[in-house]
Amino acid sequence: MNITIITVGKLKEKYLKQGIDEYLKRLSAYAKVDIIELPDEKAPETLSDIEVLQIKEKEGERILGKISQDAHVIALAIKGRMKSSEELADTFDKLATYGRSKVAFVIGGSLGLSKEVMQRADEALSFSRMTFPHQLMRLILVEQVYRAFRINRGEPYHK
């Protein structure tokens, strides 16, 4: 399986980079994983609704430009469907069964994802009703993808 994680914003924190690198190394036995980091739009603290929309649209254009046409797109969104680790593993299993070997996860910037990106998504996934920094979501996502592959292979993993 080929997994692409398309994310807005630069990862600066060394501890997050180390965690992500560790899971990417572990994942290499199961899948090819690429992380595409796109620049975020600079924005002042206070924005009008129109400015928020414009920023999300600009970031959205960049995101859509990186999604391959035949990819199954999973957008990370607070209002998405929550799944257990086993359900995420089942999603991968079903995609593989039906010959969908390309999966693209999309993590938006601090303002979220544009309407166009959400429309392109095949599903919206929520890890929690809580809000997490998008940089931290990268680490959580790669850990859960790794866990899903372990589950599908019947290999032990911490609960």
From TrEMBL:
Under the heading CDD domains, the entry gives: RlmH-like
Q: Name one Pfam family in it.
A: SPOUT_MTase
Q: Which HAMAP family match?
A: 23SrRNA_methyltr_H
Protein residues bound to S-adenosyl-L-methionine = 76, 108, 127-132
Record keywords, A-Z? Cytoplasm, Methyltransferase, rRNA processing, S-adenosyl-L-methionine, Transferase
Official protein name in the record? Ribosomal RNA large subunit methyltransferase H
Q: Which gene encodes it?
A: rlmH
Q: Which reaction does it catalyse?
A: pseudouridine(1915) in 23S rRNA + S-adenosyl-L-methionine = N(3)-methylpseudouridine(1915) in 23S rRNA + S-adenosyl-L-homocysteine + H(+)
Q: How does it assemble?
A: Homodimer.
Q: Which organism is it from?
A: Peribacillus cavernae
